[in-house]
Task: structure prediction
Amino acid sequence: MEKLSKNIELMEEFQSSINLSYDLSNKNKIKEFIPTTSYIKVIEDLFKGALGFSPQRARILVGPYGKGKSHMILVFLSILFNKDKKLFNNLLKRIKEYNKDFFYQLSNYIDSNKKILPIIVYNNGNSLTQAFLIALEETLKKEEFTDIMPETNFLSAVKTIENWKINYRETYEKFISYIDEPINDFILSLKNYDLEKYIKFEKIFPKLTSGAHFNPLLGFNIVDIYEKVTTKLKSKGYQGIYLVYDEFSKYLENNLNISSDKDIKLLQDFAEKCDRNKSMNMLLICHKDINNYIDNSISKKKVDEWKGISGRFLHMNLSNNFSESFEIISSVIRKEPKFWKKFLIDNSKKFESLNKLVDNYNLLETDDLKKKLVEGCYPLHPLTAFILPRLSEKVAQNERTLFTFLSSSQKHSLKKFVNNNQNTFNLVTPDYIYDYFESIIKNESYESLMYKNYKLLKTSLSKVEKDSIESKILKTLFLIYSIDEVNKVSPTLQTIADIYGDVTEINSILENLEKKQCIIYLKRSNNFIKFKESSGKNIQNEIDRAITKIKTSYNYLDILNDIASENYLYPNKYNDTKEIIRYFDFRFINEKQLFDNEYLEKQLIQTQADGIVFGIIVEDKEKLDEVKEFLTKDKPINKQLVFILSKNKENIQDILYEYKAVLELKASVKEDSVLEEEYNIIIEDLEDIILSLIGIYINPESKKSLYFYNNREEKISRKSQLSNLLSNICDEIFYLTPIINNEVINKNFISNTTIRSRNKIIDKLLEENLEYNLGFRGNSQEIFITRSLLINENILINEDNLSFINLKKVTNKELINIFEKIENSLKVSSVEEPLNIEKLYDFLIKPKYHIGLKKGVIPLYLAVVLHFYKKNLVIQKDGADLKLTSDLLTDINDNPKGYYLYLEDWNPTKERYLKELEEIFSKNITIEEKTYNNYLYIIRGIKRWFIGLPKYSKEIKNRYVGLNKGKIKVPQKYVKFAESLKKDIPNSRDYLFNDIFNIYEYQDFNLNIIEDIKNTKDFYESVLSKLTNILIKDLKIIFSNEYIEEASLTSVLKDWYEDLSENAKTYIYSKGENRLLDLIKNSSNDENEFLHKLGKILTSLRLEDWSEKTIELFLNNIKEIKNSIEKFNSSIETKLEKDNLYKFIFVDENGKENVKTFEKIDYSPRAKLLLNEIENSIEEMGYSISEQEKLQVLIEILKKFY
Result:
């Protein structure tokens, strides 16, 4: 039997990639071009630009590998300068079918004498400057137009070197020594426009010419050179140039981050020049957009520069019209007509079967392509032909593309298949194209999903025979997932059977693959065959055990509602009208919960939504009719509830328990990535099933559910109808909602930034005098909210650089209703019946009151009303007064429970009372706090006064009156007043109008209490100074045995001190005697200062911190010390005769001797330890310090302590 290749021929023109420079004259390449609609659209666009019909003539053409970009541009460039119309017959025919106007325009151009010269630039690994100059020079050489090539700096440098060689030999030799490379190589580099060599020449030139700079007659500007050439070309019969940079992608890949400023400027300048000069055109050809080449490795400066370049070019994308690929493929595969006619007849049933397959898979957008796909693409299986262009676009590279697969002689190419098969009905299945592209697939990024699946595939292929049906199935599954169009070609048993055999046979093969623990997993949600890597464990056993546990811990409805919790339903029409966002929760219930009205009401209380749509799952299928009857039965029902009942008998419980079990199993195996991935696959499958069930309820288009509201069935078949039902519900329930044109704040949960802005506005509203626009300027969020909520609604009026609130100006009826409710609630409040703020919130929010305000705006509206009443306002929680601030209103907004407020019943007497208190404690009162609370600022002032008192004053219960005079009790009223201030005062009003009157034993409100408070204050403020005077008097008596009014304390103590002997004065005592003697010796005439210092010495406490016991301790200590000194003074002569005294004489800096004497005593154990440590430390020093230094250290220690 004949080879298939005898009757099927493949166009060889496609087997090699296009080289624009070499192929411009290749007539066969041009003739064999297959003009698809996508190609024609691009050619039309480019042609209009080239002829000046478009203002943008600098363009970037973007299209993936294997898309035929270069072949299309080859044909387009040929049109511009080639006048052989026969070359373009096929193209013109297709253009005429596409667009007659374009056909006539193009035909006229070809028939005319107009020509445009193509210049092809290639990436040569060097600078763009070099590449552009080489391209220009080679083009002009090829066309024999070298006479119009301007002399560049490069050629000027070459001529200069040649001039040196002939006329200035010494200079020439010096130049050779400087370049450090063969002169011929250097000159060749300059001729090839090597910028690095030219710069080197420029640097050497001054050394050879006494500092002169190289300055050739012609300037060096690439764009100017091209423009001059373009002008001169007109004399050669060309209207302009068309510069094409093919494979510009390679330049971007290699130079994006290291491109020079000159390269970047060249592109920018050339693009700008093209847009200004109708004779110049430029096209860059890329595989992807410039921005897609930018990554984190590129500096910000370069990123900005390349984004700027990208913006200067008009971007053109070669569209992904895969249907046209069938046209290209069928054009490449040429059948011998006589053979093909007979072949179609002989195999008519098989082709009929393929036609049905195409219909079943809905592969084509239009039926007219079916013949090209089934017959034209033969011997490709239709699904192979579908996969091929999509796979090529994802992975193709220059050496392997759609075209090379069709035309080349490479292994696993279509040409190889045709050469190796006979004239029987053999189809190229998808596994064959996998084999062709595998060498590229394995080089995909290791992070990509394709590479991950490739690794799984290779593992599985190692477990089956090479070229077996199992391996072919595995490869085909890989390709189906790689092109990612499972909506058309899905990885199912049926798809595999349609390619490789009947369902029974394929099913058996799949079962065998599963037994081999290959990559097969049949998804229950859509019957997809899924890749997976086997962990080696029996997953199903693990799942079954976990399900048993889950059933005892979870209710399947709770699991289902966790998944469905994000499916909110919106009343779009209502939301648009009211400029608000209301929504309904979606939850599942069973029939038992449906019949329990208390349960339904509880769900409404717990939700933040404006209603609930319940999906009903009937557990007892026999009760389905009962459920339907219940939903339409006349009964009381909350109008915020909508019910959906599936028409089908859903059995989802087992799926949900399995889903939860697998979730928990996955969480327990985080260290095992393979096992975790196996669980992931199952989870995704189960999620698809569950989400599909949810979709039955919330997507009316499925027509699988019934909808019920207010005891009747609603005819709903579209989602918009369901949304309209919810809008009607909101219209009926929330008809008193005001329109608030600010979605940032008009919701229940606002951002922290918006809360801060709202608080700033509230603080301004609570001030006495309001600034213009509340003091906000510019375009801040504060001014935005102020305008939309207050100014635009006439709540806040701006006049004469000030603002004021005037609720009578408000015209919005819904807002008027809100303010009246808040204000009326305030006016009827009192200390006996305070306003429960939670109830006020209920009125503003709860559906039964029909306002349904969002919580974000409530604090602002409260602040507007409270602005007028803050003077007499009291806000409390748990009986404690609270400052009226934005923070308080925010806290109330978060949870209003437990907050109360009322207006104080005010009169002139109470006004005077508070004013008098304010005057008494004026030094401690912060006037600014009056804004926050009418009473709290006074309490805080009194507290500050009391806290500032000395400890002695605050704690005093009995007042000391002098030696031998005992103590006098402090008035009980004073003590009670002080004790009350030590405690928290939660209720300022109760304290000022009740508690304080009880303290001073008034039965009724009486302004005489002001005098009592003044006296109390005076007492506590003066009690310490009085104690000081009494103690001074006591000291006079102690040290003089009598009290002499005229004598000062200082003189009494000096007299006593002077009567002591010198030995008594210099003796070192064991207690505080020496400190007393030093104090007296150095004392001034300030009695108070002396007493305070003495008190600190004898008690270790300041007088302010004394207590009643400290006074007694002080007096006892002073008497004891005095007696000790006097006793030593009287016995000093006897003590001096004993050999038990130490006497030290220290000389101060003034030369005055200070004598210290103390008595020798026995060592205590701790003192002995100290002595040993000092001796050891001195011995350890050895000779590192001198003996004199050791003595000086010891003397300094003595001086310090004595």
Observations:
- The two ends are 129 Å apart (CA to CA).
